[in-house]
TrEMBL record:
Part of the ABC transporter complex PstSACB involved in phosphate import. Involved in the system for phosphate transport across the cytoplasmic membrane. Its main location: membrane. The complex is composed of two ATP-binding proteins (PstB), two transmembrane proteins (PstC and PstA) and a solute-binding protein (PstS). This is Phosphate-binding protein. SUPFAM superfamilies: Periplasmic binding protein-like II.
Amino acid sequence: MKHMKKILALAMCGAMAAVAFTGCSNNGTTTSGTSEGGNTNLSGTITMTGSTSMQNLCQALQEVFPEVYPNVTIDAQFTGSGAGIEAVTAGTVDIGNASRALTDEEKAEGIVENVVAIDGIAVVVNPANDVTNLTQDQLKQIYTGEVTNWSEVGGPDMAIVVVGRESGSGTRSAFEELLGVEDACAYAQELDSTGGVATTVSSTEGAIGYLSLDALDDTVKSIQIDGVDATEENITAGTYALQRPFVMATNGEISEQSELVQAFFEFVYSEQGQEVVSQVGLITVDGPSAE
């Protein structure tokens, strides 16, 4: 991963600071990552599953977190947002990752929405396509099948191939909800991963798709929505329409979780953790307010 060396360098610089806030004893002294009696001696495995869009973030945390907690591993699987919420609800994992907001029904089951980052959803086309901008209305018309040729939106005379994610994907749920086209899309292909969408769009001249902002690369072309680019600056400013939360859901409040899971969230919401969020191309968030 292109960001990983930079992230690891950051972790090495920030590890001592992170140790300081997690390893303080009652008398104000601190413990090192290998000394006895400090929280940094926690050991075990944190299990999580869910959103494929959150893969870059989770893999970065898998690398960085052990720099502070060397005896802890993170077992992350990427099975889709719906599967992640089902797993944390059933108690088979510590954390369920979802690239969308939780539903009222999920919250009613006791699942807590812990937003750890904000992501933009980029709309992408094949690099050979000369279309650079779509309005939200045009995007709706394309995805519902009302517009089927690029010439109808100022592009070449070429059939539009509508690509999206599979049912249960957090990216799909967020995209459709933000556009107001839930259960109304006319997909030509429904793919089960962010990478699959990028690969299909990059190899299909008339294709259009959507993917997480941090998954953008030069194999596809991101287009403007209502004249606004999908960038971190525009998402932070609130001018780019397609944005969604990255959620690490827990069964109950963070304070009710194991010491290991609590330490993980403390790190994620720390300055060092949010630097990792930023390094993988996501928007940082503030941690939960103290009671």
